[in-house]
Design goal:
It contains eleven helices and eight strands. It is an alpha/beta fold. The longest helix has 17 residues. About 45% of the residues are buried.
Length: about 280
């Protein structure tokens, strides 16, 4: 892991692999390690740079208003600080919301855009769910336990809980092993989710884009598919059958296969040097 000064914060990141740079942006309350199941495969083909967003992991957690646009500004400044002119950009949920702002505001920096479990504008249903998470986190006085008891059931199908309880338990242990997010930082991050609205910015996205959904996701369901495909000119969509909000955990091999195929289609044919990132 390394750290670099970005805007008004010090941002933490992890780098693995070789090839064209692929920036992975975490989801709500998560740190860079949330993509461990993906990086293990992607790093065979790309230089994977997984970041901790403002307010999470080992990145600074200042006070103030957080927005998905601000997160994108941080990632753009991170790219400049470590010398990446252009990268493939990948995010799930909050990471996808951040990615779409990054691609809209800084199109030259984004070679491809991968939007998993994404949405355009937070609607009343989503807002009530997130407000419930905030209330649960306050009641439990633990963001970690709120993630396991409050967010997990939206991410996975009942069938996964029933057939693979040991897997759910292992994922819960993994969450408990990561740096705990302070309650105040979670509230600021989740407020960014509540206020996300990138619909008007979608038309500025130029990069080839992959949009994926879980077929049984209700939080960011395919109700957003039409808006995303209509707004982003160069987009293709994949739906993972039998999955809820997190196909990347529920169907790991299939998710990795289909998302990596998209990324590889947009690699340069020539050999690409490894990226040795500098911490300025």
């Amino acid at each position: 892991m390394s750290k670099v000064k970005v805007n008004d914060i010090t941002m933490n990141y992890d780098q693995q692999g070789a090839g064209e740079p692929l920036i992975l942006i975490p989801y709500l309350a998560a740190d860079y390690a949330c993509y461990a199941f993906q990086v293990a495969e992607y790093a065979k083909h790309f230089t994977c740079i997984s970041v901790d967003l403002r307010g999470a992991g080992e990145t600074d957690k200042p006070s103030g208003t957080y927005t998905t646009e601000l997160f994108a500004d941080d990632v753009a400044a991170f790219m400049q600080a470590v010398g990446i002119e252009q990268a493939h950009v990948f995010g799930m949920s909050l990471g996808a919301a951040t990615g779409m702002w990054l691609a809209a505001k800084y199109p030259a920096k984004v070679k491809t855009l991968s939007l998993h479990s994404a949405w355009t504008t937070s609607d009343p249903f989503q807002k009530d769910v997130v407000l419930g998470w905030q209330a649960l986190a306050k009641g439990l006085e633990s963001v970690t336990e709120m993630v396991i008891l409050g967010i997990f059931p939206w991410c996975f199908t009942p069938e996964l809980y029933a057939t693979r309880p040991e897997y759910i338990a292992a994922l819960a242990d993994f969450v408990r092993s990561r740096p705990g997010q302070p309650l105040e930082a979670f509230i600021r991050q989740s407020n960014a989710v509540l206020n996300h609205d990138a619909e008007a910015a979608l038309g500025r996205i130029e990069a080839p884009t992959q949009i994926t959904f879980g077929q049984r996701d209700t939080l960011t369901s395919t109700r957003f598919a039409g808006q995303l495909q209509a707004g982003i000119a160069n987009a293709e969509m994949t739906v993972f059958e039998g999955c809820a909000h997190a196909p990347m955990y529920e169907q790991v091999e299939e998710f990795n296969r289909r998302t990596l195929a998209f990324l590889q289609r947009h690699r340069e044919d020539s050999m690409v040097p490894d990226y040795a990132l500098s911490s300025n």
